[in-house]
Amino acid sequence: MAKMTFIYGAMNSGKSLELLSAANNYDERQIPYLSMKSAVDTKGGPLITSRIGIERPVDIIAPTDINVRHRVLEEIELRKLGSIGALLVDEAQFLPREQVFQLFELVKEDDIAVLATGLRTDFEGKPFEGSTAFMTLGDDLKEKTTVCRCGRKARMNARLINGLYVFTGEQVAIDGDAVAYEGLCAEDWLLERAKSLAT
Amino acid sequence: MAKMTFIYGAMNSGKSLELLSAANNYDERQIPYLSMKSAVDTKGGPLITSRIGIERPVDIIAPTDINVRHRVLEEIELRKLGSIGALLVDEAQFLPREQVFQLFELVKEDDIAVLATGLRTDFEGKPFEGSTAFMTLGDDLKEKTTVCRCGRKARMNARLINGLYVFTGEQVAIDGDAVAYEGLCAEDWLLERAKSLAT
Amino acid sequence: MAKMTFIYGAMNSGKSLELLSAANNYDERQIPYLSMKSAVDTKGGPLITSRIGIERPVDIIAPTDINVRHRVLEEIELRKLGSIGALLVDEAQFLPREQVFQLFELVKEDDIAVLATGLRTDFEGKPFEGSTAFMTLGDDLKEKTTVCRCGRKARMNARLINGLYVFTGEQVAIDGDAVAYEGLCAEDWLLERAKSLAT
Amino acid sequence: MAKMTFIYGAMNSGKSLELLSAANNYDERQIPYLSMKSAVDTKGGPLITSRIGIERPVDIIAPTDINVRHRVLEEIELRKLGSIGALLVDEAQFLPREQVFQLFELVKEDDIAVLATGLRTDFEGKPFEGSTAFMTLGDDLKEKTTVCRCGRKARMNARLINGLYVFTGEQVAIDGDAVAYEGLCAEDWLLERAKSLAT
Questions:
Q1: Cβ distance C165 to C192 under 8 Å?
Q2: Scanning every residue of chain D, which has its alpha carbon at the shortest distance from the alpha carbon of C102?
């Protein structure tokens, strides 16, 4: 019986590294697998990348309006893989709920394991649709934490625009020139939020 | 540093029993605590109840439009408790997101531990607002599972009206005369869903 | 594929209540199961008991020198159960390593789920043979914690003889007239240990 | 309050990668930390290495007969670090129980977090002393799994000598020319064990 596993955490908590490590395990065992990310994630191009210096091409870049279960089964057929050990999904927070439900069916009806990673919360502390769906339907939920500036566990995400913390705006703003993200502990995130909302 | 813990599971997975067991531990240690549930939950009256045959009065019944952080602090003051070991929250799926955020502040700013239990998904497999907020903000997430009719782990909730599985309707329908709920494994839930939606 | 699950914790952390709750779930589903405890545990007689006020007869009381895999299969045969949903094992710390290995084979070769509970450490902070074996071979390890006198999580066990903490002696001394146990947090346990060893 | 965290798993499950990822997080935050491994582990020299292609020098190589709590505090003093974010311990299975207890005191009395990784079982399915001590005293236990040749989760370790599975011998035999290890699921490990013991 295949399982749906969701690894959640703040920015820079090593989530993609978990996928790359799993990919490496399947490679060593010569068991085929596929990887996927949402077309919403424009960062890094067609790669799964980890800050620690490892990357790997991604097999499927999924627009938000396709049936990803069908897309995966099609790709298995196309590549004549027969079956796969797992589907690895990066940046799963960007998937609409319908696509996560399609992956749930892929796990439970087609018996294909899904290992997905995603941000738990956006910069306002609100849920991402894709992550909520995975946390709601997943068999196993695992947390990755990183280190806050104060040394505590970082579980929240703060958005910086030109170096200033901001707590209002669009849910999705891919980090780049002006926009950056920082993992913070709840206490520091609430502190910066209070300061920012007070100005 | 207090923690926000969320125990999630399907119907009849022993979630309230976890709260009653924690209450018992605090009682034995003579450490004060408070319990709360949402006014939305009309079942069982002002009690936390477990199918195994244990129950306990609930201290605070919270309408959805009050600030629950203030309400808890007020109750601590009123009862001259000084401080409490934990706030125990039953049926947390019924809390609006704002109230869960208020409890998050209670944990992180007032250093009061919160232990909440709730259903992970509704009968359509969709997230409850309160549970999503707890899964998004909680420090520790723990799963309780129960047994499906087939012997596997039950993680999904099915709604029965007059003994028939239904997969459309209002999110909240408290179980009573005509309405019942049953924990099912994902496979059996998808099976009953397909049968029901086909008719 | 059946699983071996081990629930560990300090004294009075609600471990047996987990077994009683699981038993209740199987009863409601009318799925047969068996329960077992070691003959080393002379407390409570042929019952699984919880401080919260629930108890249930235990099906198999196992001397340390029998093959428990064979014993369980024999009992299934004897009672004409065909198969069981799970074997529930209380006070698993008292099982010798060989018996835990036999249960591991019961899970993996006979496809029978085992759910066991036990103390993680003895009063000196040393491992129990049975718990170590379960932690070494188990598929899922889950912790139950209780409340220390200071309000923190209790993970260690302290032994009291006539009300005084003691940190030397036999590993097994069933609580009764003179002997009592108390769950403490690591800090308080280390404190009492230092005071006791200093005298 | 610092925590003792133990990450356990079979060979090649990405345990050291977890340490390297944590080290990377501390580096990015410019929070000092120290790393340690046992002198028993002669593989890889004074490095923490991951099969995925990352490595990092190890700060302390500990003989089994020193007090590692004192050694760490001395190193903090020597390097004038003031305090550290964490002590990272690789190949923790090789530490004697006394050293793990010293690290427990380092966490609980000196408030220094310890993150250790180790093999859960030896090739005979028996516990390693160091891992048992960490599983017994740790605040958080996390599992890393890898992939069995059959695609299932690998949790057991098999030893191969010149390509043949062996199930008797010394507990410690560092992999090298003739000796290799392979992570297997319980079912496959029991199968190879039965075949090997039958010959």
A1: yes
A2: D190
The sign one gets for the Cα dihedral A82, A88, A94, A98 is: positive
CA distance to partner chain D, nearest, from residue C126 (Å): 7
pLDDT, one tens digit per residue, over A121-172 is 999 999 999 999 999 999 999 999 999 999 999 999 999 999 999 999 988 8
Q: Nearest residue of A to residue D147 by CA position?
A: A25
* Chain B residues with CB-CB distance to C29 below 8 A: 147-149, 151
Please report which helix (H) or strand (E) contains residue A49, including its range.
strand A47-50
Residue B17 is assigned to a structural domain of this protein:
yes
The b-or-e profile of C81-111 (16+ CB within 10 A means b, else e) is eeebbbbbbbbbbbbbbebbbbbbbbbbeee
d(CA B168, CA C58): 43
Which helix (H) or strand (E) segment holds residue D136: the answer is: helix D129-137
Q: Is the pLDDT higher at C174 or at B8?
A: B8
* C24 assigned to some structural domain: yes
Does the predicted model carry a pTM greater than 0.90?
A: yes
SS3 of D54, please? strand
Q: Return the HEC string of chain B.
A: CCCEEEEEECCCCCHHHHHHHHHHHHHHHCCCCEEEEECCCCCCCCEEEECCCEEEECCEEECCCCCHHHHHHHHHHHCCCCCCCCEEEECHHHCCHHHHHHHHHHHHHHCCCEEEEEECECCCCCECHHHHHHHHHCCEEEEECEECCCCCEECEEEEEECCEEECCCCCCCCCCCCEEEEEECHHHHHHHHHHHHHC
Q: What CATH number corresponds to the domain at position D61?
A: 3.40.50.300
Range of the domain at B84: 4-145
The DSSP code for D126 is P
Q: Mean pLDDT, to the nearest integer, of A59-86? A: 97
Residue D161 lies in a domain: no
- Residue corresponding to tokens 């796990």: A107
Asked if residue A62 lies in contact with residue D31, where contact means CB atoms within 8 angstroms, the answer is no
- Answer yes or no: is D89 within a domain: yes
C194–chain B nearest CA distance, Å: 23
Mutate to test the interface with B, among C3, C24, C144, C145 (most CBs of B within 10 A): C24
Asked if residues B35 and B58 have their Cβ atoms less than 8 Å apart, the reply is yes
**Interface predicted TM-score (ipTM) of this complex, two decimals:** 0.94
Q: How many domains does chain B have?
A: 1
Q: Which residues pair with A114 in a beta bridge?
A: A4, A87
- Give chain B's residues under pLDDT 70: none
Q: Which residues neighbour B74 within 8 Å (Cβ) at sequence distance 6 or greater?
A: none
**Model pLDDT for residues D133-179, shown as the tens digit of each residue:** 999 999 999 999 999 999 999 999 999 999 999 999 988 887 777 89
Neighbours of B51 (CB within 10 A): 14
Question: Over chain C, what is the mean pLDDT?
Answer: 94
Q: What are phi and psi of A104, to 5 degrees?
A: -60, -40
Strand A156-161 relative to strand A179-184: parallel, antiparallel, unpaired?
antiparallel
